[in-house]
Amino acid sequence: MFLTLALLRKGISGKQWIGKYRRPRQITWQMKRNTLKHLEREAENEYWISRPYMTTEQEYGHAAERRAQSWLQIKEAKFSKFPEHKRITDHLSHLNVTKTWSS
Q1: Chain-centre distance for alpha carbon 2
Q2: pTM > 0.70
Q3: Whole-angstrom distance, CA of residue 18 vs CA of residue 12
Q4: Residues of the signal sequence (predicted)?
Q5: Which residues, 6+ apart, have CB-to-CB distance to 25 below 8 Å?
Q6: How does pLDDT run along the chain (103 residues), one tens digit per residue?
Q7: Is-contact 17 23, C-beta < 8 A?
Q8: Which residues lie below 8 Å from residue 21, measured CB to CB, with a gap of 6+?
Q9: What CA–CA distance (Å, rounded) separates 52 from 100?
Q10: Cβ distance 27 to 35 under 8 Å?
């Protein structure tokens, strides 16, 4: 069909690389090589993904202790920035003007 259109219309109307009646690109040896490399890489990735590092029994809860330690570190860091508690006596100490030294 493309051949007939090209012969009858004497050329491709508009831009030759885009549109409904565009000219197909030539497949070069570099394109074939790149596609082959991509497919080989994908096959290797699927090979490694299909073999898990740990079994499901080993995987269950394997990081619980590490996560607990990191949570404690985060909590301690948060509390270290927190100011100390102030008692009500500290807030109202300026009212103790009538208190004598002897008592």
Answers
A1: 45
A2: no
A3: 10
A4: none
A5: 17
A6: 566 766 676 677 778 888 888 888 999 999 999 999 999 999 999 999 999 888 888 888 889 999 999 999 999 999 888 888 899 988 888 888 787 777 5
A7: yes
A8: 2, 5, 12, 13
A9: 77
A10: no
Contact 84, 90 (CB under 8 A): no
Through-space distance between the first and last CA atoms of the chain, rounded to whole angstroms: 112
**Taking the mean position of all CA atoms in its chain, how far away is CA 4?**
50
Phi, psi (5° rounding) for residue 11? 120, 165
CB 52 within 8 A of CB 41: no
Cβ atoms of 47 and 55 closer than 8 Å? no
Cβ pair 16, 2 in contact under 8 A:
no
Rounded Cα–Cα distance for residues 29 and 15 (Å): 25
